[in-house]
Amino acid sequence: MTLNELPAWIAPVLLLMALAGCVYALLAAALVGRFAARRSPLLAADAPRPGVTILKPLCGLEPDLFENLESFCRQDYAGAVQVVFGVQNAADPAIAVVERLRAAHPALRLDLVVDASQHGSNRKVSNLINMSENIAHEVVVLADSDMSVRPDYLERIVAALSQPGVSGVTCLYHGVPGNRGVFAQLAALAIDVQFVPNVILGTSFDLARPCFGSTIAMTAESLARIGGFRAFKDDLADDYAIGEALRAEGGTVAIPTFTIGHACVDTELAGLWRHELRWNRTIRNVDPKGYAGSVITHAVPLALLAALLPGAGSGALAVAALALACRILLCLRIERAFGLAPHAYWLLPIRDMLSFINFTWSFVSGAVTWKGHDYRVVADGTLIPEHGLGRESRATSA
């Protein structure tokens, strides 16, 4: 069947979906401004600061690893701080980075756990299980190794966690492409112009209940009540599952009104594709209906696809131009709201086309590649290793 033989009604439907995507982008732009303008809770100057244990599971020598980890060591926080690093291989090059941090911050308690024990199919959670015996303080903050934060991070996280009815805290994050080239910039655009507004709009209308590996803060008591990290040893979306478990305790998972940095390290299309495919399949597994409905957020590709079909008329390209203008407006709004550096706006249509192709391909199978290991995702969200063994590769950001 050729394009000209397709039913004439398909093009108008695609254009209606694209127009819905334009409305979505404009609404998201408005809600982003409202979200960022909210006043974050603060601790009183004379309020006690509980001790905090930061957990940092590591795997390999990631780009900017020392700088990212050191940002957690440079906190303006009056309470006791412990950072626990964990690796599962005694030859892991990340150990040398931890030793550099110890030399640079001799007054800070920096613990290292080297333990190859594997407790389930999720290797990161196995690492956390091994590390958890070293937790020394009342508040536990889990944060991925590719995150960077400002010096007031802990103060603001503890303030949010101290609010009535809050059982956990998580954080939005923005992309940090550095000087790694066009694919890192594309990765940052996906985070800043797709992930961030989608979360803000979803939470504003109570359509999403997120919890991100960028930050998960809770008390040690709450962690024990939800069964510790062992309860999530086989989950692909372990961060989401931890958030759901914390909510089941009767509280909420708060999202403060700031973002932290996520290092975008992909320098080739293949790596970018694998990361985003895993993210998409994770979201699809957590919220299949919401994920399918998010097709309208791909307004530019939908309009361009309609333009190729019979029945589209001359208005299809106009809708595509309108959709792109809405995307640029949303990007500008996010940059202003969170104080981000300007993006390369000419990459937006490329970003949108790549996202749409990846979105479509995510429905083909449940296979994912994570830290060089191949898995299948089964219906309940658990991971099953392919053939029991994964490929060894240079560690990349999760």
TrEMBL record:
Keywords: Glycosyltransferase, Membrane, Transferase, Transmembrane, Transmembrane helix. It is found in: Membrane. It holds the Pfam family Glyco_transf_21. The chain crosses the membrane at residues 6-32. Pathway: Lipid metabolism; sphingolipid metabolism; Sphingolipid metabolism. It is a multi-pass membrane protein. The keyword Membrane applies. PANTHER family: CERAMIDE GLUCOSYLTRANSFERASE. NCBIfam families: HpnI. This is Bacteriohopanetetrol glucosamine biosynthesis glycosyltransferase HpnI.
